[in-house]
Amino acid sequence: MKKVVITIARQYGSGGRTIGQMLAKDLGIHYYDKELLKLASDDSGINEELFEGADEKLKSSPLFSISKKIYQGQLISPKSRDFTSEENLFNYQAKIIKELAEQESCVIIGRCADFVLKDYDHVLSVFIHAPEWYLIEQARKKQSMSDKDLKAFIAKTDKARAEYYKHYTGRDWTDARNYDLCLDSSKLGFERCVEEIKAYMEVRMK
Q1: Coil, strand or helix: which one is 200?
Q2: In what order do the strands lie in the sheet with 30-32?
Q3: How far apart are CA 112 and CA 98, in angstroms?
Q4: For the segment 106-129, what is each residue's pLDDT rounded down to a tens digit?
Q5: Rounded CA separation 22/7 (Å)
Q6: Would the pLDDT of 64 be above 70?
Q7: Residue 8 in 3-state DSSP?
Q8: Quick one: which H or E segment has residue 7?
Q9: Mean pLDDT throughout 83-91?
Q10: What is the architecture of the domain spanning 5-204?
């Protein structure tokens, strides 16, 4: 198999993470999610807790949420007072994502990987989504909340991901034009989503 990287953006409860794990196992390649934070921490020397605190979310300040700091590929010097800023945490995370894409085939979950790797020919970007009722149904399996609270939790989580994506890419997270493939997991199920991604990959990578 030629080297291929599949990036997966996902709504909370859509099963995107599970689909990514299944796909990686099926293809015999690495799966990267939270591991990216440790790798970025090891590379930069910045405490991993700082990466975890800024993971796919922005500061609570409304002004910060609506601002943009579109990723350009640069790193901030350790001598700068902004070395541990949220922008530089993203920069180091993006550096790791690029290095992985250059070194191996893998599946990468979230963290604007589709944008970071937008100029790489061997990258396939996927967005996994589903209607609200399905997101709640799936979230109920992991969260002990009422349906009302689950609905609010899902909306809050996806809002944070959308703001994070907008801040660093300048794009709308749910815009289908950002991705090679958009799949509704409620209609296909997880296994069929994996098969559809593999089928598209075979056509695309030829």
Answers
A1: helix
A2: 30-32, 106-109, 5-10, 123-129, 181-184
A3: 12
A4: 999 999 999 999 999 999 999 999
A5: 14
A6: no
A7: strand
A8: strand 5-10
A9: 93
A10: 3-Layer(aba) Sandwich (3.40)
Q: For position 60, what pLDDT does the model report?
A: 59
Average pLDDT, the chain: 93
Length of the chain, in residues = 206
Q: Rounded CA gap, 8 and 44, in Å?
A: 25
CA atoms within 13 A on the CB side of 145: 15
**DSSP code string of 131-182:** -HHHHHHHHTTT----HHHHHHHHHHHHHHHHHHHHHHHSS-TT-GGG-SEE
Q: What residues contact residue 8 under an 8 Å CB cut-off, 6+ apart?
A: 16, 17, 19, 20, 107, 108, 109, 110, 126, 127, 128
Domain extents in the chain: 5-204
